[in-house]
Write a structure and sequence with these properties.
alpha/beta, Rossmann fold, 2 domains, seven-stranded mixed sheet, binds S-adenosylmethionine
């Protein structure tokens, strides 16, 4: 069976999700704000869930139509071939609805009408008046944008950034999907030096280690899609096997530091859970004193934002000190995510690129200061 699927992602990350999908061999058919549509078969849905580093969720599209009234919503949902996806005993809640710039905006009413229409459709197809809903869960999601309704089934469950390794998180951890995105946007690979001098719970270093070792981010977790009737157990088994076969056993090291010894301990423990602790050296260290005898290297980091009252001055001073330390690394490539708007001013350096993105709900910028390319080694 062929499906149209949607990889949902944070705003600003769409092009990287699209790149990831194409690399996995999928055909991408549409890219819009926070949504990348692609064609797939059932195994592909499993592969996308297991392998995508920057997406938050994979939905299977059941249909798309225009609706400006609840009558239109009801009639159009009733026309969808829901029985192709939802078996007679399935539990099919309309688990989520979202509406932007549309006539229909009451989320609870959108959910109720969609459910009523789905029941009507399935009643007539299955020739029954009542559904026990004791079978596997098939969660329906509805998304309305400018009166265009997409009705989908969720195949992910807990969002994809929940890899499972961050049992413990301290301070202000960055989303795993954003950390992966930060690394993927740079030309870093496992043969190059990488340091996160303010690693917190270790997310950037852990995601980079998984990228370097080609460990798929979802390999150690389960997905809603494992309950769905239209994706078989063997689809999941084959997708997992193929994902494991892609892992490499290259030896490389990433360096992750933090000034807070408790954070260093936490990051180490998270890396152990992720199975990449052998690829990362953790140490307590002050980022403002960072120096290196290596001519080339990458710093990818997420300094404190100072969101709380009274912290701003202290944080500005920290960024100024970091700027000074980075001046001693003129050939290094430096990448910084921050919700501060004035990072370039504080660093005393103009970013080559400044990209807006959302770390969860927090509007941030990804400041990119790439250094010169190292000369090619002659054999
Ligand atoms: C926003 S958090 C990093 C969160 C991290 N990306 C994660 O996912 O958990 C900033 C971190 O910088 C650390 N930090 C603050 N000042 C520092 C300094 N001078 N040197 C090293 N680390 C510092 C804090 O202890 C904190 O863990």
């Amino acid at each position: 069976m062929k499906f149209e699927a949607i990889a949902v992602c944070l705003f600003g990350v769409e092009s990287t999700v699209s790149y990831e999908l194409k690399n996995l061999g999928f055909t991408v058919t549409n890219v819009s704000d926070g949504r990348v549509t692609f064609e797939t078969d059932a195994k592909g849905i499993a592969t996308a869930n297991i392998s995508l580093r920057c997406a938050e969720r994979i939905l299977v599209k059941l249909g798309e139509f225009q609706a400006r009234t609840f009558d239109e919503l009801f009639e159009n949902v009733k026309k969808l071939p829901l029985e192709k996806y939802i078996p007679v005993d399935a539990n099919f809640p309309v688990a989520k609805a979202k509406s932007i710039n549309s006539k229909l905006f009451s989320v609870s009413d959108i959910q109720a009408i969609t459910k009523k229409a789905a029941v009507e459709r399935l009643k007539s197809v299955y020739k029954t008046e009542w559904f026990c809903e004791t079978g596997e869960k098939h969660p329906i999601h509805v998304f309305i944008n400018k009166d265009i309704v997409q009705v989908t089934i969720d195949t992910t469950g807990p969002a994809l950034h929940k890899r499972g390794y961050r049992q413990l998180s301290g301070g202000a951890p960055i989303r795993e999907t954003i950390a992966a995105f930060m690394v993927m946007l740079t030309p870093w690979n496992e043969s190059k030096l990488l340091v996160d001098p303010m690693c917190g719970s270790g997310t950037i270093a852990i995601e980079a280690a998984m990228i370097g070792a080609n460990i798929m981010p979802g390999i150690n977790r389960n997905f809603q899609g494992e309950e769905l009737s239209f994706i078989s157990k063997s689809d999941w088994m084959i997708a997992r096997k193929e994902a494991i076969e892609k892992e490499n056993h290259k030896e490389f090291k990433i360096y992750a530091y933090d000034i807070d010894p408790e954070m260093v301990k936490l990051a180490k423990s998270n890396a152990q859970i992720a199975g990449v602790d052998h690829l990362i050296d953790f140490m307590k260290s002050d980022a403002t004193k960072f120096h290196s005898s290596n001519e080339y290297g990458f710093i990818i980091t997420n300094p404190p934002y100072g969101e709380r009252m009274g912290e701003k001055e202290e944080v500005y001073e920290l960024y100024k000190q970091l700027g000074k330390a980075f001046k001693h690394l003129p050939t290094w490539s430096i990448y910084v995510i921050s919700s501060l708007e004035n990072v370039e001013e504080l660093f005393g350096k103009k970013a080559m690129k400044k990209r807006k993105l959302y770390n969860g709900m927090l509007k941030s910028h990804y400041y990119q200061f790439p250094g010169p390319k190292p000369p090619k080694v002659q054999n």
